[in-house]
Amino acid sequence: MKHKLLPLLVAGLTAGIAGPAVAAAPTVYGKVNVTLHKFDLERVNGNGVKFDHADNWELESNASRIGIKGDFDITDNLKAIYKLEYEVTVDGDDDTFSQRNIYGGFQGNFGTLIAGKHDTPLKLAQGDVDRFNDLAIADIKNIMVGENRQSNIVMYSTPSIGGFGATVAFMPGEETVDAAGQKVENDGIADAVSAAITYSNDLVYLALAHDKDVDTYDATRVVADFNLGAFTIGGMYQTAEHGSDAAALKDISDPLKQFGGSFEEQDAYLLSGVWKMNDKWSLKAQYGYSESTPLVAGWGDAEATLYAVGLDYKLGKNAKVFAYYANLEAEGDYDIAFNSTSTDDSTFAIGYELKF
User: Fold this and answer.
1) Distance (Å, whole) CA 151 – CA 156
2) How confident is the chain (356 residues) per 10-residue block, as mean pLDDT?
3) All structural domains of the chain
4) Which residues pair with 169 in a beta bridge?
5) For the chain, how are helix, strand and coil distributed in percent, rounded to 5?
């Protein structure tokens, strides 16, 4: 008798609750991007001597991912939103899954508020100006800082008003400790801040963004991208300097202070373009340069020069094959005892991308 009454009781309680519709089923999405590379890489050893690091063929997975996202109506003007996105190493060389943008939040007429792990507003401000985003050697992260995806981030984005929008984010430091085990005074609600203002229409995309104490650096980024019909031309300028959190410095692990090293300041720029030759073929290219002043006294500035050219062929709405060539040259003092040393890295690759 009790078993028969329980379903009736549950049904009666449910019917008495005035609430929104049940959440829609989550959306599963993702991207597979795989390239076959011919690499030619150089490095500098502990004595300041340059040597061939790699001259081989490799299969690479380029930020391939799978995710689940969805929303739940709370009221007519407010909904809860969520996203769980993970990078998948299609080539099998690394861990199968690693976190990308993962968050929960709310969205309504007021805009969007999320909390979790996410690209910073400064990183997002690049838009599509990096034509070779996520690709080995060609990605702008190899010549400039600021490409950060931060944990413990709270981020608010306004709705678009006449093409204008703004995004601001803060990150509490959560009382971390340095390498020596000493407490770092990062116990505030906003130990790091990132913000961006954007404007876009059918012809132009503009952005101004700033990071404060994000990944130990302050950075300001200006972006412009112009749609000229078959041609799209863009550029980005960024200036950055070491922030106030001296105890959170990165280790200086690279002789040229460029790829993983620490610096006092950095100036960088990028020029890029795409020519859509027809509905199928697109030719793209970009050139970037940065100059970094190391924190180590007596070390000279490090310069990095990047250029890349590529050709895409569209197979359908969500798929393409492509090929590209990229070259990255870095030059700078190894230390006080050695003269200027340079490395020259390059790759040719053919690849395939499918979005679903």
Assistant:
1) 15
2) 40 43 81 96 69 86 96 94 95 82 97 98 98 96 93 97 97 73 73 96 98 92 97 97 55 35 84 97 97 77 92 96 95 57 90 97
3) 42-58+122-355 (2.40.160.10)
4) 155, 194
5) 5, 60, 35
